[in-house]
Amino acid sequence: MNKIQLFLGLVLALSGRIEAANSPSALSSGPSLFERAGSAYEAGKYAEALDLYTQSAKEDGLTAGLAYNTGNAEFRLGRRGRAAIWFERARMMAPRDADILFNLGVARSHLQDEEGTAWEFLDRIITRWELPWVVAILAWLVFGCAGTALGGVVAWRRVRLVVCVGAVLLLASAIWILLRERAAQQPWAVVVAPVAEAHSGPGDNNPVGFTVPEGRHALVTGFRPGWVEIGVPALGLKGWVREDSIERIALSEAVK
Asked: Which end of the chain has fewer CB within 10 Å, C or N?
């Protein structure tokens, strides 16, 4: 990423897009938590804005706009790893949002060897919430056409191509759903410490095998009190890090 692109990314990341309409509390009298957070952000009170965004997520529910703005606040506070987590959560809810994708790229820009996953690309084509509708439409098309042919309403040769192609697409879509849900359930996390030391075992008495920079993706593979075993696909390594040096990406973790 060149200097001009990084500068533009930073400007966008600091903009703190406001989407108060997504907050249920916006309907109540007086400024909502979301609106108060936006005002604090615009005033440069990023820590206060972050607290209010977090409180809003717990009380009103998490939205893509709220996750996006929380990521911006984290980024302004210099916590690139936590910013990446919130941008990831925002992307999960709005996978085609250009601002979210751009800011996520900025948060990852220091990790030259880590790129977006294949699922991020596929989600821009068909999201995990649209896939069931695609399967339902294809099933209706395939079985409907086959039924009309079996009932003698139309000749088989007229619907054969539609049925065969539709059946292939239906099978592919069903497999896509299964694989997508399996990927979504993987315990992915992001390193939030400036540098996480990965030990050969759970404990400081074990030697450090490698270090993991802030913002790096990691797959959680094991637990011990105060320690987590992670695999780092970008490095092809596995080791044990302190539990507080990573944070899970899962949306359920966002409102704890």
From this structure: C
Only one residue has tokens 């309409």, namely 21
Between these two residues, 104 and 118, which has the higher pLDDT value?
104
DSSP code for 109: T
Q: Would you tell me which CATH number, out of the four given (1.25.40.10, 3.30.470.20, 3.40.50.360, 2.120.10.30), belongs to the domain 3-112? A: 1.25.40.10
pLDDT value of position 114:
60
Kindly report, residue by residue over 141-185, the tens digit of the pLDDT: 989 888 888 888 888 888 889 889 989 999 998 888 888 888 777
**240, 198 contact by CB (below 8 A):** yes
| Cα 115 from Cα 117, distance rounded (Å) | 6
Mean pLDDT, residues 33-37 taken together: 83
The residue among 108 and 9 whose pLDDT is bigger is 108
CATH fold of 188-253 reads: SH3 type barrels. (2.30.30)
pTM over 0.70: yes
State the DSSP string of 40-82: HHHTT-HHHHHHHHHHHHHHH---HHHHHHHHHHHHHTT-HHH
Count CB-CB contacts under 10 A for residue 102.
16
Q: What angle do CA 30, 31, 37 make, to 5 degrees?
A: 160
